[in-house]
Amino acid sequence: MKKLFAEFLGTFVLILFGCGTAVLAGSYVGVLGIALAFGLAILVMSYAVGHISGGHFNPAVSIGLAVAKRFEWKEVPRYVGAQLLGAIFAAFIIWLIVKGQATGAANVGAFAANNYGRFTLGAALLTEIVMTFVFLSVIIGVTAKDALNKFAGVAIGLSLTAIHLVSIPITNTSVNPARSTSQALFSADPTALSHLWVFWVAPIAGAIIAGLVWKYLMDKKTK
Description:
Blueprint: H1 2-53, H2 59-67, H3 76-99, H4 121-142, H5 152-171, H6 177-186, H7 198-217
Helix pairs in contact: 1-3, 1-5, 2-3, 2-4, 2-7, 3-6, 4-5, 4-7, 6-7
């Protein structure tokens, strides 16, 4: 239960800071500010609770680590459940804040939901697969036994920041099915839920590819 609560809390903070910045302060800080919010959130929570649960905060991360044989498959459903609950609770808090605007202009809007309106479905799938592959590659690599683990959180946070800088204009950046689900549930965009499958399939596909690649690279029996 401690591990599950750590995943809940870490995912909650990631969505609260990342999507909260996009929804409430996006017009002030722009793409760079939003990217930094996501990167800093995962950095601080990796150090805060990562030693308890491993600091996944993302269903794709749990699946990718399981494929790479760095995480037990039997734990994946429980971790994913905790991550979804944390993300949805964070989105609910953001929604309450938006609805509580003193001006009365409680327009929820797109609510930082993932979409690909200006790009094709193929471009969206490719973006999310590649970006999640890169993200998982960083996570698996920097948390390996021979890596400089003390700086793992920094590398992971910076990689997520860079990923957002590239993909916000394309898909609003998912690489995290829990993040996509939580925002789609509260979004006023009618296409948010219908496009949600993309942001489950593509990140999981990218995570599986990364897991397989790193399983091969770290297999001492493979020359």
